[in-house]
Write a structure and sequence with these properties.
This protein is α+β, with helices and mostly antiparallel strands. 52% of the residues lie in helices and 17% in strands. The chain starts with a strand and ends with a helix.
Length: 330
């Protein structure tokens, strides 16, 4: 069912607003309306931080279920420290994984050139021997190889289903005119590229150990997220509160559960300098909706929320579709 709510309209001194809102939040009962809030430029950084913290928590929770997670008891002293470290490590891991992919692709491209020492080409160049690397279609190479070999020293290195990879042994500044594509001389062979990829994988493993320490601190990150979310709520409240009497007074709107509103009334009666009006919500009000169902039906509230929460004053259909979903979808 939908919990009945009571609406409050507060009028208080602007100087009291921060303390007053904090006292209400201590009760944990009042929802301060923030309808119509538009973030200012200085608020966007806070919104971005909240989004980044949420994504970090989701990522770390998923990470703990993966094979990359390494069980550890080491954590961080604060949620901010853990989040900052996570951000740094995530960037490192993304860069390393990109480098692994690049090196693996490079190794595949280098396979036709076989195994060689990179220093050998430099030693030959010192002696006036230049190696120039070419790729040609198999049919083109087979048709012209003998012709090219009449004037050039050509060495076939490898071939695949469509191409031939070969080297022309030349001298510095010599002109080579053949129907083939010259490519940049490779600086390493496929073995060296795969070896570099393995080194990057080892570094990824080290990063995973450090990320595991961040995952241990996910509760601290959640607490820090709660602080940021509270800051955002306060910004929204101050941004939507109406000012009166040249800014000396603040007008706020809030909501409390009807059966618990007496605790709010008690605080308001004790709080000097606050005028409030309490009334039942009307159909024109944008009343917040809170559901209260038994333990069985409560399990299916999330399904209803995926579509839309019922409007205040209407019927909560959760108790009706709960058995339907259980019977038809198990």
């Amino acid at each position: 069912m939908i919990v009945r709510m009571s609406r409050y309209d507060f009028v208080l001194l602007a100087a009291q607003s921060d303390d007053f809102i904090a006292r209400l939040r201590e009760l944990g009962l009042v929802d301060i309306t923030t309808t119509g809030w538009e973030p200012q430029e200085q608020d966007r950084h806070l919104l971005t931080s909240i989004d980044q913290y949420r994504k970090a928590i989701e990522s770390l929770n998923a990470f703990t279920q993966s094979e990359e997670y390494v069980a550890t008891t080491n954590g961080y002293a604060s949620g901010k420290e853990a989040f900052d470290k996570y951000t740094e490590l995530r960037q490192q891991k993304t860069a390393l994984q990109g480098e692994v992919a690049r090196l693996e692709k490079l190794a595949e491209e280098l396979k036709p050139w076989g195994e060689f020492e990179g220093d050998a080409r430099e030693r030959l160049a010192e002696q006036g021997v230049v190696l120039r690397y070419y790729v040609a279609q198999s049919s083109t190479y087979d048709a012209h190889a003998a012709e090219w070999a009449a004037d050039l020293t050509i060495v076939e290195i490898g071939r695949d289903s469509s191409s031939v990879y070969f080297v022309v042994v030349s001298t510095p500044g010599a002109e080579v005119i053949i129907d083939a594509q010259e490519i940049k001389a490779p600086t390493m062979d496929s073995r060296a590229a795969l070896a570099e990829a393995d080194k990057c994988r080892e570094q990824v493993a080290e990063v995973n150990v450090a990320l595991s320490a961040c995952a241990v601190s996910v509760e601290a990150i959640e607490q820090e997220l709660g602080v940021l979310t509270q800051q955002l709520q306060n910004v929204k409240i101050h941004g939507t509160a109406s000012e009166a009497a040249d800014g000396r007074l603040v007008v706020l709107e809030g909501w409390a559960e009807e059966d618990k509103s007496q605790e709010v009334d008690k605080l308001l009666d004790e709080y000097s300098g606050v005028i409030y009006i309490k009334r039942n919500p009307t159909p024109e009000d944008d009343t917040p909706v809170k559901l209260k169902n038994n333990r069985f039906a409560r399990l299916f509230e999330l399904i209803g929320a995926m579509y839309a929460l019922p409007k205040y004053g209407t019927m909560d259909l959760t108790p009706f579709f709960a058995p339907f979903y259980m019977l038809f979808f198990a």
